[in-house]
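FORM 12-B: Structure-to-Sequence Request
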């Protein structure tokens, strides 16, 4: 299977695996919690992050992401994708020998934590709702706003 086919298969499977979380209450009932305000930049938005504390330091499981991404709409929140998170083994921003990949797509990073107590890490956003002109693995999506 080529890289493009592998990516499509991975994204399609993830879309199925997280479909139940379209109902935010299901995500909350399964242990996801809000993680900060809506994330936006001049490049677009990431939306609202809901993380699963028990999964944050666990090995990446493509069937069970650590973070769910939601967009605030007039009708409530809408599931837009997922984010995978891996703490950097040595905490050094200048090395990346432990960078992970998903379906051949390298994780972004290493990057400093975004808030107090968050380690140097790698992450990878996967947009599962609608096409993202910047790419399915881009950290930002133009049509997501806060």
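FORM 12-B RESPONSE
SEQUENCE OUT:
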């Amino acid at each position: 299977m080529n890289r493009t086919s592998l990516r499509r298969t991975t994204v399609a499977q993830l879309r199925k695996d997280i479909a139940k979380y379209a109902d935010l209450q299901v995500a909350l009932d399964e242990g996801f919690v809000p993680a900060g305000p809506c994330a936006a930049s001049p490049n677009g938005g990431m939306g609202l992050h809901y993380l699963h504390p028990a999964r944050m330091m666990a090995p990446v499981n493509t069937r069970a992401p650590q973070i769910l991404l939601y967009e605030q709409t007039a009708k409530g929140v809408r599931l837009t994708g997922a984010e995978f998170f891996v703490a950097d083994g040595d905490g050094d921003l200048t090395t990346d020998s432990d960078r992970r990949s998903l379906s051949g797509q390298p994780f972004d990073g290493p990057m400093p934590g975004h808030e107090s107590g968050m380690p140097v890490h790698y992450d990878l956003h996967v947009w599962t709702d609608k096409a993202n002109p910047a790419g399915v693995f881009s950290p930002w999506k133009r049509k997501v706003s806060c």
